[in-house]
Amino acid sequence: MKGANKRLGDAYLALVFLFLYVPTASVVVYSFNESQLVTIWSGFSLKWYRALANDREVLAAAWASLKIGLATACAAVFVGTWAGVVLNRFKRFRGLTLYTAMINAPLVIPEVIQGISLLLLFVALQEATGWPERGMFTVWIGHTMLCVSYVAITVQSRLAGLDESLHEAAEVLGATPLRVFFDITLPLISQALISGWLLSFTISIDDVLMTAFLSGPDSTLLPMVVFSRARLGLNPEINALGTLFIVLVTVGVVIGNHFMLKRQHRLDREMSLALSQGGRGGGDGSPAVLQGAQDESTTRHRPHSIG
Amino acid sequence: MNLRAPAWLDPWLPSGRTLVIAAPFAFLLVFFMVPFAAVLKISFADVRMGVPPYTPIAELRDGALHITMNLDHYATAVTDPLYVGSYLYSIEVAALTTLLCLLIGYPACYLIARSDPSRRNLLLMGVMLPFWTSYLIRVYAWIGLLKNQGLINGFLLGAHLITQPLRLYHSNWGLLIGMVYNYLPYLMLPLYAHLVRMDTTLLEAACDLGARPWEAFFSITVPMSRRGIVAACLLVFIPAVGEFVIPEILGGSNSLMIGRVMWDDFFVSTDWPSAAAATTAMVVLLLLPIAWFQRIQRREMGSG
After folding, report:
1. SS3 for A61?
2. Are both B101 and B238 inside the same structural domain?
């Protein structure tokens, strides 16, 4: 009975994953199809990749999107981390309710709303001051707004899961708040920062609505090109482009995940080692994460006070 | 590092703490809240030919301040059948999407949360990976499956289950399939996080006391994961109401959701005031679910 139930469960999960992955797999398979009619297989060919490599519109748009994506990811991680740290460290200040609302709401607010309202802000601003022109800058701000909340929430939940005693230890050892942040907090949440950066990059690279509302005549970005072609139906070149995308992202995530897990294991091991030694009341085996905070303060404080 | 302001300035300078809080606060205020003021302003304006394509609300003429507020666009936004129909249709599609996602996703999350830890991580990554893959490409991928000569129809025809290809691409069915497919991971991740944290001793107790697995599931697991269910559903429902790309690529010409109407107001008929009024109407419509979501998120953060 139990075995039958388990097999039923496995079959169900398999079906759900089939639903999640068959569409993307079909994009990859048909990108190697020779036929112009995407869904009718006529033989293996790389011609759509060649066509893609010679498609100036796609290449130019991809280059522009790459730049916006990099700038967005960096800005979103910078602002989002700051916002997330404030959310976690300061439990009480005037406007806290509004602040949390402004971080949470963009997660769910439909993008049309955010896109139109940001555009109208920029237009009203331009009317009043002559700046900013719609273009790369406004798209950059819009994309950053889409991603900031994700980063802030990831950072705050990662911080909430951390051991407070590390921060306290650093403060006791005489580190300034800024130093505590750069030497303790930042390394500990680096995993959240990396995943936030990658997520922001992917959001930026295929966002249609914000891009459509905020881009000017000078900038055609990749999502606009893909969207306008997908609207017309199947297009083997888009299959090839999608395959490149999927391969890149999958490899990136799998490798990133592998290293993050490894790092996490190491941190956990060092942490438990340090705590167990601290519990026994001594030893110099301080965890690597505390090393930075210590090297300066050891002369004034005894490192044994950590335990 | 040792930049110090003169001592007499001290009472006038904000403390470091205030500055640290104020920076992200101001950023969000300027780029998230203030834009809504711009929307409100333009929703009261009139359409005109020119740049920008709307009239000013306040004008200084002959030394007198003239304020013209046009309420027509609001009247249209709440009475015009095109608008009202699209709100209702958007809500219907979003609600159906949420329900289907829940029906498919809940058992899957439950199974993942109850599987052994080594397998769990792999399965979880399987749910998360679509997040990282291009959303646009994943929606596009469905064209190849839904078309008359596509994979689904090919399979069904080949298995002699149907004699005529089903019309899926550019139809309401295609739209719904695309929506469920795209929003499923959004539902599964928060739900999984809830289910995996759940205390299983209660379940064991129920089973020890003779409850059948199904009874235990409905009387313990479901009530205990209620907050997770609500949060996950709102995370799907609210953005789904404003979805634009999926109906545009997979839906039919009669699948008119509100996002499309706003887009057309903006880019096709260049009627910005109407688009702004529709935006306001949509915000009002979604205010309650958003407030609900906020409350749950705040509690999560407090307890997390």
Report:
1. helix
2. yes
Locus of tokens 């830890």: B117
B168 occurs within a structural domain = yes
Confidence of residue B55 (pLDDT cuts 50, 70, 90): confident
Distance CA B236, CA B247 (A): 16
Is the pLDDT assigned to residue A182 strictly greater than 70? yes
Decide if A108 touches B, using CB distance below 8 A. Answer: yes
Every domain of chain A and the residues it spans: 60-235
Residues of B in contact with A195 (CB under 8 A): none
Q: How many CB atoms lie within 10 A of CB B93?
A: 23
Q: Is residue B75 part of a domain?
A: no
Contact yes or no for B234 and A86 at CB 8 A: no
Flag whether B57 is in a domain: yes
A212 in contact with chain B, both atoms CB, cutoff 8 A: yes
CATH architecture of the domain covering A60-235: Orthogonal Bundle (1.10)
State the CB neighbour count (10 A cutoff) for residue A35.
13
Which residue in the block uniquely carries the two structure tokens 């209702």?
A: B88
How many CB pairs below 8 A link A and B?
A: 240
* Cα gap B175→B167, rounded to integer Å: 12
Residue B134, phi then psi, degrees to nearest 5: -55, 125
- State how far the Cα of A61 lies from the Cα of A255, in Å rounded to an integer: 27
Domain range for B191: 80-270
Last residue of a domain, one of B44, B67, B90: B67
Q: Rounded to whole angstroms, how far apart are CA atoms B142 and B250? A: 8
B95 and B188 housed in the same domain: yes
Q: Please tell me the total number of residues recorded for chain A in this structure.
A: 307
- Tell me if the pTM is above 0.95: no
**Cα–Cα distance for residue pair B103/B289, rounded to 1 Å:** 20
Partners of A113 on chain B (C-beta within 8 Å) are: 242, 279, 282-283
pLDDT single digits (tens) B191-226: 998 888 887 788 788 888 888 878 888 888 888 888
Q: What mean pLDDT is reported for chain B?
A: 87
B214 CB within 8 Å of a chain A CB: no
Q: Does residue B277 form part of some domain?
A: no
Tens of pLDDT along A263-307?
Answer: 778 877 887 887 776 544 333 333 333 333 333 333 333 333 332
